[in-house]
Amino acid sequence: MDKRTIQRTATALHKTIKKLQDELKNNPYIDNGSLNSIENVVYQIKGIRDNRETPKRLEKILTKADEIQRLLGDFIHNTKANNYENIEPPSTEDLICDINSLIKKFKNVEYKNKCLSVDTEFITLENIDLGSFKIKLHLDGYNSKAETCLRIVALNPHPATSDPAITHPHVRDKKLCEGSGFGSITKSLKEGLIENLFNIVNTILTDYNDESPYVPLDKWYEINCHNCGEIIEEECSCGCCGESCCSYCTISCQCGSNLCESCSSRCNNCEETYCQECAITCEQCDNISCSCRFLNCTKCKINICDDCTYICVECSERFCNDHYTRDEQTDEIMCNECMKNKQEKEKEVQV
Amino acid sequence: MISVKFVCNEGDGLTRTLSVREGTLVEDFLNVNFQGELDDFTVSVRSPGESSRVVEMDYELEDGDRLTLSPRKIQGA
Q1: What are the sequence ranges of the domains in chain A?
Q2: Which of A117, A149, A192, A247 can bridge A141 by disulfide, Cβ–Cβ 3.0-4.6 Å?
C-alpha cells in the first residue's frame, strides 16, 4: 500500500468512525434489562413485606436488597460502558499509524471498494490445515456490530466436510462468532481502534475453543447423514439428489439405484420402493406411481394407470378413456372397434 | 506528569486516558491499572507517529503512548 492510499484509507476511516460516534452520542444507551430486573425485585419485596416484620421476612428482604445492589451495579456499569458522550474519533494521523502497524504485521494490506483488508498467516489448528484468511472491514456497513461490517474470507478454503460454509471452527458464511472477543471487537469498532480490531480477530482465528465450535475439529472431515444427521461410517450418496446418507437411511430402488428417504416413494400396490426416474405419470389422470400399475392403451399406446384402464369384454385388450365405449343396453365395456363390429352384426341381423 | 492511553482488551470497558508520573514503567502502570495474570497477555505500545511494538515490562512510558493489553488467547464461539 503506497503513502497516498494509506492517507486516503485513513481519511475514509476517520469519516466513517466519526459518523458512527455521532449516532451513538445522539442515541444514548440505557441498560433496560437491569432496570427491569430491579423493578421485579422491588415488586417481590413488596410481596414479602407485612406490617409486622418477622426475623425470617427481614432476612428475605435483605437478600433481595443485596440483589438490587448487584443489579444496580450492572446497570451503572453497562450504561456507562455503552455511552460515548465524550468520545472522539482517532485522528487521521493516528489511523495512519494503525495502518502502518497492520502493514508491519499482516500480509497484503489493501483498501479497495471501501473495504480495508489484511491476510492472515496460514492457520493450522489441532493438526488441521485451515489455510489463510482475508479479514475484511467494510466501511459501507461500518457499525458497532461485527456481523454487519466484518467478513472472514478463506483464501484457500479447507471447509468442514459436513458444511462448506464453515471454513473455520468459528466462522460460518464468512461471519465470525466472536465469543469472548465480542466486547473488545465492539469497543474497537465504536472507538475506531482499527489495529486493535484486526489483531483481536486474528487472535480469535488462531485459537480454537473446543466448547462451542460450529464443527469440532475432531469431526472436521466427517460427513453427517442428510437424513438422520448421524456421522456416516460407510458413505452412500442418493442417486437422485446426490446428498450423503448412511447405510441405514439408504433405500434401494427396483432399478438398483440408491435413494435417500425424501427422494423415494413406496408403491401402495406392490409395496416396492421406486425412484423419480422409475415413477410413471398416468397420461389420463396425472397420478404418479410405480410401473407395476401401468399399461399401454392397445390403441394409442399411451401410459395409463390401472384406475384409468378399461378391458374390452370382447377382445380382452386394455384401453384408455378415449378408446372404449360403454354399451347402453348391457352396460358392458367394449373397445371402439369391437363395439363397431357388434353394431354392424346387429344391423345385418335386422336386415 | 505524562498522558498515556490505555486500551485493555479484557472485557468491554472504554479506553482510558490516564496521567502518570514521568519515568513510569509498564510494570508499575499495570500494577495500578490492571488486576489480572499478566502472563496471559501481550503488552504493546504505540508512540505518537510510530507503529505499535510489543514491549517488555521494563519499558519506560512516554507522553502520548498508547498501551494495549491483549489476551494471548481469545476464544471464538
Answers
A1: 3-81, 96-219, 223-278, 293-350
A2: A149
Architecture of domain A293-350: 2-Layer Sandwich (3.30)
Cα A334 to Cα A15: distance, rounded to the nearest angstrom: 87
Using alpha carbons, select from A101, A205, A211, A80 the residue that is nearest to residue A150.
Answer: A205
pLDDT at A349: 87
Tell me which CATH code domain A96-219 carries. 3.10.110
ipTM of the complex: 0.88
Q: Record the pTM.
A: 0.67
- Distances from the Cα of A21 to the Cαs of A187, A189, A233, in angstroms? 11, 10, 53
pLDDT digits (tens, 9 = 90+) for A215-236: 999 889 888 888 888 877 776 7
- Domain B2-71 part of CATH 3.10.20.90: yes
Contact A177, B75 (CB under 8 A): no
For the segment A314-339, the average pLDDT, to the nearest whole number, is 88
pLDDT digits (tens, 9 = 90+) for A29-58: 788 888 888 998 898 888 888 777 788 888
d(CA A2, CA A109): 10
Partner-chain residue, chosen from B7, B13, B73, that has the shortest CB–CB distance to A207: B73
Min distance B28 CA to chain A CA atoms (Å): 23
- The pair phi, psi for residue A10, each rounded to 5°, is -60, -40
A183 vs B: CB within 8 A: yes
CA distance A347 to A340: 11
A196 and B CB contact within 8 Å: yes
A131: left (phi over 0), alpha (psi -120 to 50) or beta: left
